[in-house]
């Protein structure tokens, strides 16, 4: 598996980090992070939303390695506003350039346009990238267990905590879930997509959700496109969802967001 996409991504990320450090060293980046806008509570917002209905992390995603270009008409600020208007709890913004056609500026523009907490969706290996995330304004970072060692994960989490950011820990199988339990973050993302093969199967959440300890919050990630999918995942223990492509492909993103969340709102809205 040495030529899988994750190891390719890791090698160009480490190159990117070395270049970034040459341009702005750690103490320079820490200075930028101190000047960033105050952290918005990411996990807390999802916890509150999922108590009465669904929590939605809506993703700003222009392209992906498996699907190519997803949305040509792409304005991060407008998309962020549409998601907020449609009822999203939080945003996720892809900042990886080579594989997802993302950019740090997209996160900056999206976050400035709304009051929602924002996840930086990228592949992090080095604590420097966590500080850089805060300097961009990110409120939460992602740790992909399939991509990092236990020691790397712990270092990333510790740096995030130091900067007041939340952490979404992403897992795809029972072994990664066990490793996630060594970390402190309550937010566990079950990725329905296998990042090595790109096969997406909602059965991953159905199988793994039952193994997640009671005191953690489950986020089902990837491959959901209808409100029936959300109801299915909710029945299996996940009331928080990370959705990108299905919403990004719709002309009216606010309406599509409202629509995918609709049954939850009407079923739980205290009619
Ligand atoms: O577009 P989808 O199928 O709704 O998936 C969103 C999100 O879960 C997916 O983009 C994702 C999940 N984990 C990742 C890690 C890196 C990059 C991207 C991802």
Structure description:
It is a single chain. By secondary structure, the chain is of the alpha/beta class. The protein has one domain (5-265): TIM Barrel (Alpha-Beta Barrel), CATH 3.20.20. Helix content is 46%, strand content 16%. The chain contains twelve helices and ten strands. The protein has helices spanning 5-23, 26-35, 42-52, 76-86, 104-113, 127-136, 150-162, 174-180, 203-208, 227-235, 245-248, 253-268; strands at 55-60, 63-64, 68-69, 90-94, 118-121, 140-144, 166-171, 187-191, 217-221, 240-243. The strands form two sheets. Strands 1-4-5-6-7-8-9-10 form an eight-stranded parallel barrel, surrounded by seven helices. It has a two-stranded antiparallel ribbon with strand order 2-3. Helix 9 links the parallel strand 8 and strand 9 (217-221). Helix 4 (76-86) packs parallel to helix 12 and helix 10 packs across helix 12 (253-268). The chain is globular. The termini are far apart. The model has no long low-confidence stretch (mean pLDDT 95). Indole-3-glycerol phosphate binds next to strand 10 and helix 11.
The structure class reads alpha/beta
Report the top-level CATH class.
Alpha Beta
> What is the multimeric organization of the chains shown?
single chain
The neighbouring-strand order within the major sheet is 1-4-5-6-7-8-9-10
């Amino acid at each position: 598996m040495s030529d899988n996409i994750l190891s390719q991504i890791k090698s160009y990320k480490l190159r990117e980090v070395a270049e970034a450090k040459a341009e702005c060293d750690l103490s320079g980046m820490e200075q930028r992070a101190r000047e960033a806008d105050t952290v918005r509570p990411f996990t807390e917002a999802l916890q509150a939303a999922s108590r009465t209905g669904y929590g939605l992390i809506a993703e700003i995603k222009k392209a992906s390695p498996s699907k190519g270009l997803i949305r040509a008409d792409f304005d991060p600020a407008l998309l962020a506003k549409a998601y907020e208007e449609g009822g999203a709890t939080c945003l996720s913004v892809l900042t990886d350039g080579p594989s997802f056609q993302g950019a740090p500026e997209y996160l900056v523009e999206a976050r400035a346009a709304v009051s929602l907490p924002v996840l930086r969706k990228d592949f992090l290996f080095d604590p420097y990238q966590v500080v850089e995330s805060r300097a961009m304004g990110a409120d939460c970072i992602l740790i992909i267990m399939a991509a990092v060692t236990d020691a790397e994960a712990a270092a990333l989490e510790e740096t995030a905590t130091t900067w007041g950011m939340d952490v979404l820990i992403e897992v795809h199988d029972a072994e990664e879930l066990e490793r996630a339990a060594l970390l402190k973050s309550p937010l566990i993302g079950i990725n329905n997509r296998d990042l090595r093969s790109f096969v997406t199967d909602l059965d991953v959440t159905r199988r793994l959700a039952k193994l997640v300890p009671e005191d953690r919050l489950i986020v089902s990630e990837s491959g959901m496109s209808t409100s029936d999918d959300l109801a299915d995942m909710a029945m299996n223990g996940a009331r928080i969802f990370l959705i990108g492509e299905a919403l990004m492909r719709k002309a009216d993103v606010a309406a599509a967001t409202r629509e995918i969340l609709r049954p939850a709102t009407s079923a739980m809205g205290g009619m």
